[in-house]
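User: I've been trying to design a sequence by hand for this structure and keep getting stuck. Would you show me what you'd pick, starting by listing the structure so we're on the same page?

Assistant: Good idea, let's start from the same input. This is the structure you sent:
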């Protein structure tokens, strides 16, 4: 019997199912724990996303200090799904960090666009001509998304 992947409430097929029945502090500890398998850490990331609170979003931001670029990339992705502007300062910091992995920076830029807060236009504009195309193109996509959300086409799409 073929199993179909579970689609999250965000419309995505996540690489790991969210943990269930825990507290934000437990999930955060799992995200930050380098001694447990990556799959378990990912489950904690998706559990925090599903909480949808400021506290959960900020707990995810602490994961940007983890050594795994894969995990940091996934954290940026779910922050975009959460669409909580409380994380914009941290995403701005990640995008601006020239030492950060390019794929984490690209995902931070796209998350900023997904959040939909026009206050970040200047930072996206600053990086839209970045020499790394993954960063530049992600900033352009984020700027286009912000413009589209303001358009009549978006209103027609959301009805």
């Amino acid at each position: 019997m073929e199993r179909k992947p579970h689609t999250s409430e965000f419309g995505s097929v996540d690489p790991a199912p969210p943990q269930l029945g825990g507290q934000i502090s437990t999930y955060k500890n799992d995200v930050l724990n380098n001694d447990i398998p990556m799959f378990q850490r990912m489950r904690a990331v998706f559990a925090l996303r599903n909480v949808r609170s400021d506290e959960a979003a900020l707990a995810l931001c602490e994961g940007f200090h983890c050594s795994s670029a894969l995990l940091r990339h996934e954290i940026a992705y779910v922050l975009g799904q959460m669409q909580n502007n409380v994380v914009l300062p941290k995403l701005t910091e990640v995008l601006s960090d020239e030492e950060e992995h390019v794929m984490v920076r690209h995902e931070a830029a796209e998350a900023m666009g997904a959040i939909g807060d026009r206050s970040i236009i200047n930072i996206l504009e600053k990086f839209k001509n970045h020499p790394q195309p993954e960063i530049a193109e992600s900033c352009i996509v984020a700027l286009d998304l912000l413009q589209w959300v303001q358009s009549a086409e978006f209103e027609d799409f959301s009805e």
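That's my pick for every position. To get oriented when you compare it with your attempt: The mean pLDDT is 91. The CA atoms of residues 118 and 147 lie 9 Å apart.
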